[in-house]
Amino acid sequence: MAIKYWDIRTIDPAAPQRLCEELGLPALAGEVLCARGYDTPEKAQAFLQEDAAFGDPFSFRDMDKAVERVSAAIENFERIAVYGDYDCDGVTSTALLYSYLETVGADVLYYIPDREGEGYGMNCGAVDRLAEQDVSLIITVDNGISAKEEIAYAASLGIDVVVTDHHQPPEELPPAVAVVDPHRADCPSGAHNLSGVGVAFQLICALEGDDGGEMLDYYGDLVTIGLIGDVMELTGQCRALVKRGLSRLGESERPGIQALLEVAGIAPRTITATSVAFGLVPRINAAGRLGETEAALRLLLTDDPEEAAALAQQLEEDNRTRKEIEQGILREAESLLARNPQLLYRRVLVLSGKGWHHGVIGIVCARLVEKHGKPCILIAEEGEEARGSGRSVEGFSLIGAIAGCKEHLLRYGGHTMAAGLSLAAKDIPAFAAAIEEQAREMCPLMPPYALHVDRVLDPSRLTVGEFAGLSCLEPFGSGNEYPLFALSRLRLEQVIPMGGGKHLRLRLSKDGNGVFAVYFGMAPEKFPYQVGDVLDFVATIDRNYYNGECRLSVKIKDIRLSSLNQKKLCNGRAFYDAYRRGEELPIEKRHVTPSREDVAVVYRYVRGQRNLILDYDLLYSRLVSKEINYCKMRIILDILEELGLVDRRGDGTLSLAPASGKVDLGSSAILKNLQG
């Protein structure tokens, strides 16, 4: 796993004290706020405002038109259809608006398109089916902004449409009775960080003439899950809604939410934005990913505790199946990379496979980006067509790169960090080549995968009391991520396997202060560090309750030798990738051409190890005193392998090859090419 770039934020040393004195904040909370740019009492107060306004619903363009049409439909007992989406935001949006309309006596039904059979958004076949049920008004939630043709078709059948959405609108808005979307150019609401459920919530507030306070008591649980599920930025109005909603979630009167909390193992006192994001959201999404969306919606709507328990268990099983499918695709993707190692040197990893489930490839993408440190697009081949999902790294606009390849695509959409696309299966190679060229033009040197570190801490500050003060910054999530802390120059004292050998518990120390840290997903045989190594690591640090006792939980996100120069490492990786792609190097060739002594230094080090775990970043760190840059080191390993002196085995280790007599370094084609 590639070592990540640590972006350690800097602050004015005097700023935290000012915040703490004027706002009464705990010390560590003040430091984190300053690190994130809230470095004055005014900025910090604006961020922390717990009673921030939930927004004026009539500040949304067309909200008055929407209220007028929906109110008329309710009063005249017209049949209304809530047209939703199959992801967590779409399901909670549908449940919220359907529940409200049913409560006020409307004649209402819901419709969610099948992910595999219909895909996202409105379609004319669905409009026909709703027309057959005498629907005269469709209200979209979490979709509709791009449904120009479908809405026009509905109008031709005598069906009005009110759009509530939060996606970017096209140049021409659809011909709906009302289009409520905060991203409209003429919308003054400023509520750009609301998801579909947030916009639907604003609609029911407008219908009720409520400022959000009362409606949030009834629907705050659904709003909170949907906003977190769509990874909306937890600042401003969105933060206020989620913070209020989280306080209501454990007391939800919906049997479905109580059942979901139970199967996810979330106790009321442990409900946070994080536990919702990793406990509730995946289970709701799993139903949609596997084509069982209605089960998730029924769970949120049912009044029957027994039905809720059964549906929650079904979602639990769906989530388990989703994980199995995800692991299978991940194994296949890694196998493709192992068989075609040249792919690893591309700026953007593009992998495709037959039979891959389109509903989970986005999750697998995120895992590959984290592991390999570069943008990734996975494409599921479905006969003659294919659908893909991509994830990026900060500093590289994935949607910008994809847009530059539109001649190879049927459809595409998304944003800087994530995108989706569809294309003819036969065009996958051409698309892969095109996006690589786009990436080369956009970023001659690709940005590294970065971790934003809020503070570097001394181990002496790792106390329950110190970290209790961070609770005032909650809820944590997108736009207000859980703080990351770095600890430096700790000696590794002990490596303890846990979880049946799937994870590690490390004991480290510095200046007499001991630290226990957990490294999830790191098997003992893959851990490349040794007792006695002096290490730096980045971690999340939180309080954890066990047997009634509160303790700190330190979870490692990245780890490295303290001697590492990260700038040189990241540049060296980029140079080596360029070399393997056959591109002109951004530095003079002499800087990466090894001498006989350079080769000997690396060979002697490898020869002195037994079953060396093949971690290139770590190997570079251990050789840093030899003044061999990263790119040169990788080229030396290529030469040693070419000459039959080392083996890079499939189990991730580097070892000496069986001796076969004296080897002539001058016979290396790699070295000749560099010298020539």
From TrEMBL:
Keywords recorded for this protein, A-Z: Exonuclease, Hydrolase, Nuclease
Residue span, RecJ OB domain: 453-558
GO biological process: one example: DNA recombination
Any one GO molecular function term: nucleic acid binding
Similarity annotation: Belongs to the RecJ family.
Superkingdom as given in the UniProt entry: Bacteria
PANTHER family: SINGLE-STRANDED-DNA-SPECIFIC EXONUCLEASE RECJ (PTHR30255:SF2)
Coiled-coil stretches noted in the UniProt entry, renumbered to this chain: none
Domain DHHA1: 348-440
Listed name of the protein: Single-stranded-DNA-specific exonuclease RecJ
InterPro entries, A to Z: DDH_dom (IPR001667), DHH_sf (IPR038763), DHHA1_dom (IPR003156), RecJ (IPR004610), RecJ_OB (IPR041122), SSDNA_exonuclease_RecJ (IPR051673)
Domain DDH: 79-226
